[in-house]
Amino acid sequence: MQLVHTPQHTQLSLFEAFMAQPLAPILKETVEAPWGSEPEAFSELSLRGAAGSCLSLLAPILRELSEEQDARWLTLIAPPASLTQAWLRDAGLNRERILLLQPRGAQSAQQLTCEALRLGRSHTVVSWLNPLNATAKQQLISAARTGDAQSLNIRLG
């Protein structure tokens, strides 16, 4: 019996392949724009699944925002019906620092969100705007910068 040896191609593991890449461009970007240098005026979070599961994922984020050291409000604009006062309490949020606002009359949730951001009485304004086009997003960013606030849009799908 004769054994035949065939050369095999060497395959790098994913880790080795990553480490083989030059790190200079990555480090350069990190130095130029360090994490946390200036917070973004607008963020968006997309959650899909059962309503209860989405709220469970959202709870720690809202809890953290409700405990901000900033003395201003955490404002929730037109939250889904399942986000009740009882849910806020059960999720451990600081309800003394939260405003729940609903648009009135002809005012849209988008308009109310922009107004709350512009006034600057909230450190973060959370909205549930879906869909959110580029113009509406730009309005939120502009209003957030004017009021020195953060805009967080939650998309439930």
TrEMBL record:
InterPro entries: Cell_div_suppressor_SulA, P-loop_NTPase
Signal peptide (from-to): none
Superkingdom to which the source organism belongs: Bacteria
Originating species: Pseudomonas antarctica
A UniProt-annotated Pfam family: SulA
Keywords: Cell cycle, Cell division
Record-given protein name: Cell division inhibitor SulA
Any one biological process term the GO annotation gives: SOS response
Lineage: Bacteria, Pseudomonadati, Pseudomonadota, Gammaproteobacteria, Pseudomonadales
Annotated Gene3D superfamilies: P-loop containing nucleotide triphosphate hydrolases
